[in-house]
Specification:
- It is a single chain.
- By secondary structure, the chain is of the alpha+beta class.
- It has six helices and 14 strands.
- The chain is globular, with a radius of gyration of 18 Å.
- The two termini are about 30 Å apart.
- The mean pLDDT is about 90.
- It binds biotinyl-5-AMP.
- Biotinyl-5-AMP binds next to helix 2, strand 3, strand 5, strand 8 and strand 9.
- The site of biotinyl-5-AMP has 28 residues, from helix 2, strand 3, strand 5, strand 8 and strand 9.
Length: about 270
């Protein structure tokens, strides 16, 4: 592993900006050296008319955003921080699937590289019980119609003393060697594009199929959970599944209760 963070190589800009449609179809990558938040930049690009499939990746992100005003911190050279502009052709009521689909695709790409990965509903990717990636989705209106901006933060090369929080981990910590960020990005984007295209092409049964695949990769299903809701109330019960709308079904005091990703502050396993 590289011991001097300053010596970590930058992203391979010429490789990323020259990928062809035979490698990853319908994706164009823009690399910036530094940005406060790639999501903010992607929102700006979408409002300027960026098409479906634009990816903005920052070599360093200085003021990363999490959900609900939380922050996302990554030392330079140690992480992937990128955002995609998507203009899904499916009805907006199906869009709650986007963060789940993204987490599922990130997990699938990392699993293919030998990591033991799970997804925590709605937007975390875990190795063991530690968070290796987080996802932030924003829906915006543009003059070309509604767009989604999906941000992904993936911890690649951080050493234990570089982790922003003790609940985080990185690919380097899990594998004992520091993977190349450019290759990891290309493999995640390729898996994500494939999952996104399948979702868009899938028709009426997509929700059901996705719910089954997602549930099988989801560590939350089967756990006793505490869900904190925005009005301060708390729902506790056994997480029993994912419904066709991408909502987590919690068997609470009033029976099976679906909760939507946009409506939860926290979901925690009761034994943690
Ligand atoms: C998320 O929020 O997990 C969404 C993170 C999305 C980050 C990407 S990076 C590219 C794009 N541009 C942006 O500005 N954002 C997106 P949430 O579930 O709210 O989790 C945030 C919490 O995770 C923080 O409060 C910390 O506890 C923890 N955290 C912060 N940095 C972390 C890291 N690098 N790894 C693991 N956990 C982290």
């Amino acid at each position: 592993m590289t011991s001097d963070p300053a010596a970590r190589p930058p992203l391979d800009k010429s490789r990323l900006t020259s990928i062809g449609s035979d490698e990853i179809p319908d994706v164009t990558i823009e690399v910036v050296d530094s940005a406060p938040s790639t999501n903010a930049l992607a929102v700006q690009r979408a409002q300027e008319g960026a098409p479906d499939g634009l990816v903005i990746v920052a070599d360093h992100q200085s003021a990363g955003r999490g959900r609900l005003d939380r922050t996302w911190e990554t030392p330079r050279g140690t992480a992937l921080t990128f955002s995609l502009v998507l203009r899904p052709a499916v009805p907006t009521r199906s869009w709650p699937w986007l963060p789940l689909l993204t987490g599922y695709a990130v997990a699938k790409a990392l699993t293919a590289q030998g990591y033991e990965v799970g997804v925590k509903w709605p937007n975390d990717v875990l190795i063991g019980d530690k968070k290796v990636a987080g996802i932030l989705i924003e829906r915006i209106e543009t003059s070309e119609g509604p767009a989604a901006v999906i941000g992904v933060g993936l911890n690649v090369g951080m050493r234990a003393d570089e982790l922003p929080v003790p609940t985080a981990t990185s690919l380097a910590i899990e594998s004992g060697s520091e993977p190349d960020r450019t290759s990891v990005l290309l493999s995640v984007l390729s898996t994500l594009r494939e999952a996104y295209d399948a979702w868009q092409a899938g028709g009426d049964h997509t929700g059901l199929r996705l719910a089954q695949s997602y549930a099988s990769a989801c560590v939350t299903v089967g756990q006793d959970v505490r869900v904190d809701l925005p009005d301060g109330s708390v729902l506790t019960g056994r997480a029993s599944g994912i419904d066709p709308g991408g909502r987590l079904v919690v068997d609470g005091p009033e029976g099976p209760t679906p909760v939507a990703a946009g409506d939860v502050v926290h979901v925690r396993a009761l034994d943690q």
